[in-house]
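We emphasize that the prediction below concerns an isolated chain of 842 residues; any contacts that depend on oligomerization or on bound cofactors are therefore not represented. The input was used exactly as deposited, without trimming of termini.
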Amino acid sequence: MKRIIVKCFVFIVLFIISLFVISGILNKGNTDMTTEMGKASLPLIYMNIENELVNCLHGYTVNMKGNYLRDTLTPLEEDRSLTISIDKYGVNINHLSYEVRSVDGKRLVESTKVLAYKENDEVLTATFTIKDLIEKNTEYSLIILIENDKNESIRYYTRIIHASNYYAIEKLKFVKYFNSATFNKVEAENIARYLESNSEGDNTTFGNVNIHSSFKQITWGDMRVTKVSELNMSIKEIANQTATILGEYIVSIKEGSKINYYRVKEFYRVKYTSDRMYLLSFERTMSQVFDENSNPFIGSKIMLGIQNKSIDLVESDGGNMFAFVVGNQLFSYNVSDNKFAVLFGFYNENNKDLRTVYDAHDIKILNVDETGNVRFMVFGYMNRGRHEGTVGIQVYLYNSLLNTIEEEVYIPYNKSYELLKVDVTQLSYVSKLNYLYLMLDCSVYEINLDTQAYSAIANGIEEGNFEVSNDNCMIVVQKGEDINKCTQLMLMNLNTQNKTVIEAGYGNYIKPLGFMEKDLIYGIAKKSDIYKDKSGLLTFAMHTICIQNEIGEILKEYIQDDVYVTKGSIVENQLVLSRVRKNENGEGYLVIEDDQILNNAEVLMGKNNIEIPTTETFEKITQIAVKSIINLKTLKILTPKEVLFEGGREIAFESEKEIPDRYYVYGLRGAQGVFTDVGNAINLANNLSGVVLNDSGSYVWIKGNRSRSNQIMAISGEMVTEDKNSIAICLNTILKLEGIMRNTENLLNEGEDVLTILEENLVDSKILDLSGCTLDSVLYYVNKDIPVLAILNDGNGVLIIGFNETQIVLMDPLKGTLYKKGITEAEQLFSDNGKVYISYVK
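Result of the prediction step, given as a C-alpha cell string:
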C-alpha cells in the first residue's frame, strides 16, 4: 500500500514538473514566434487651398480602382494650379509625380514628374499646374505618386475639378467658424439662426446631434468640453453654390481626476450666395475613446460613455466569454478567469497619430467560444501592419490559452472601404465547419479557413434575387438569370451546408422576399398574372406568400381572393406587403392598401447585455452589464501578440464575373448603398441629400444641383393623329432631340415597349426607369436638357420639358401644345398615376 502511495506521489510530482517545463517551452515559443504589429510608415498628403490644409490623403501601396475612391474633391485654382503638403513622418522621398485620369480611370490625360518643391525634415511642399488638357466643370481623378528611399511606390487618390466661382475657401471658413462658435456660448448666439431646431431633433444624446437639435444640444449642453486637436476638414462634394464638408477632431472632458477623450465628426452641407451662407444640413457624432487602463470597471458594469452607434457584442453560448467592438477597437472579457484582453486596434497609447486613428475600416466579431477564443474580421483600409496601405478583409483567430492572435486569411480588394462595407455588411459569416462566407461584388464566396481554398456559390447577385437572415447563417438565391422568370429557389444553411430547392410549381414563378429569424419568406406568381405595360414596367403579382422553415415546413400562407402582393419588406418585427387588385377591364393592376404579418418570436436576452442609461450631464451613455461582479483586485488586462508564419495566406479571387449595372449612393457619410434599381438609388440619395453614381464614376443624379428654372427650347408641341398616339409622339420627340429620326409607332404596334425602343435607339445613353421617384427628383434631368417621359394609367404619355420654382412645363400630345402646370398639382397627378417616369443619361 505504501509503495502504491509513493508511486502516486512521484507521478504527481513528475506531472507538475512536466507542466512547468511544457509551459516554459510554450511561453518561449510564444516569445520567439510572435511579434507586435508594425508601426505606420506611410506619409500623409494635404491639399492647400489658400493656406488652409484640407483633404488629408492616405497612401496606398497597391494600384487601386480610382473611380471608386471618391473620398475627397479638390477644386483647382483659376490657373489650374494646386499646392500640396506632404507630412513625411521621417520618410525620405526620392521621387514625386502625378497622373490625371478620367473619372473611370481608363483615359490617361497627363503624367508629370514634379521637380520643383520645398522640403525640410518634416514637410515637403510642392506647387504644380495641371496642363490645359482638362475640361472645365468636369471631374478628373488625380493620383499623386511618391517613391521612398526603399524604391517603394505609394499612391494617393483624390478628385479634382477646374471650375470658376466654387467659393471653396468661403465655405471652408464658414465650417471652421461654425465649429469654433459651438465651444463659446456667447459667440454661439451668432450661429443660432442657422439651426432648424424642432421636434425632429433628438435632445437626449450627445452621441448624435443635428441641425434639428436644440441650441443647448449643439453647444455641448452642460459638459465642460475642451478641444484638443485642430479641425481636419475634407471636401466630399462641391458645386457652384453647395458643398459637403466633413470635419474631424478630438475633445476632452475632465471627470474628477480623470480625463476622457472623445472622437468627433461633423458633417456639413452648406450653400453659398452673394448675400449669406446657408446651412442646409448639419450632423455631429461623438464617441468616447475607451481606455481599459482608466478604471472603466464599476461593479458589474463596463462603462463605455457617450457613443454614437450601437455596440457590437457577441458572447459564447454560456455567457462566460464575450467580445465587443467600440471605437474601432476589439476587446474581450473572460468572466470565469477575470481576464480582459485588448484584441485589436490600429491605434493605442504608442500609436496615435492621424494615420493610426484613421477609421476607414471596421471590425466584425464572427464567433466566440466558451474557452475564450474569438474569431474576428478586420475589413477596409489597413492603417499599419503587414498589409499597410491596402484595402481588404483580414480574418483573425484569438487563442486565449496562448494569448495570441493569428491571421487565417487575407482577401485584397481594389475598391473603396465604403463599398466593401456595403457588401460585407450584407453577408459575412463563419460556419461551425470553419468556412467563411462573404458577399463581394455580386458574388457569394465560400472559403475554407484551414486550406484557403474557395469557390463562388452564387454569381450575379442583384436586388430581388438574394436574401440573408439577420444572423447571416441562412441564405436564399434564385436559380436562373431573369429574376422575374425564376422557377426555383436554393435555400442554404451555412452552418450545415445543407441545401434545399424550393419549386414554384407548374405555371408559376417564384421570388424570395426575406427572412423572419431563420424562416424564409417567398412569393409565388402565376405566369399569366405577370403584367408588362406599354412602358416596359413589370408587375410581379404574387397570389401566395409563404413562410417556411429550413426543413421545408410551411409555417404560414397568405392568400386572399383577387388580391396580389407585389413586394414584401421587413420593418422591425413585421412583414409589410404591398398589394394590388386587377383593373376592372382585366388589363393591369390597381394599387390597394398595404397589409402586415407580425413576427411574434420572442427576442432572447444574453447573459451580458448592452445598457443605455441616462445621466444628468452626459445624457445617454452606453455600458455593458456583465453577468457577475468584476473583481478589480484579481483582474488581468492582456495584450496579445501576433503569431508569425511563413508564406502567405492571401486569397486573390479570380477576375470579376460579369455583374449587373450598379448605382452607388453617396451621402454626408460616404457610400450609403449599392443598387441595381436606379429609382431606389435616387430615392435614398434624395433622403440623404446625396448623389448617385454609376460604375464608371459618372454622376447619374445629384441632390440640389439645379437651376431655378430651365426649359428645353428645342421641343415644341405636336398633336396626336390617327397614326400616332401620345406615346409614339413622345418617343419620336426624344429621339429627334438626340438627332435620330424614327417612326416609333410601328415598333409599338409590333409589341415593343418604351424602354426597349429607347435602349435600341439611344445606344450611347443609359435608359433610366425612374418609377417611384418624386417629381422634384426627376427634374434633375430636365435641368440637364434631358426630357422625362411620364406615363399615365390610361396609357398616354406626356413629356416634362421645363420648370421654374412653382410650375413645370409639359408637352402633351393630347393637347398638341406646351403648357404649364403647378408643381403641387403635377406631383399629385403623377402620384395618382403611379409615378411612372423614364429618362436617360448620355
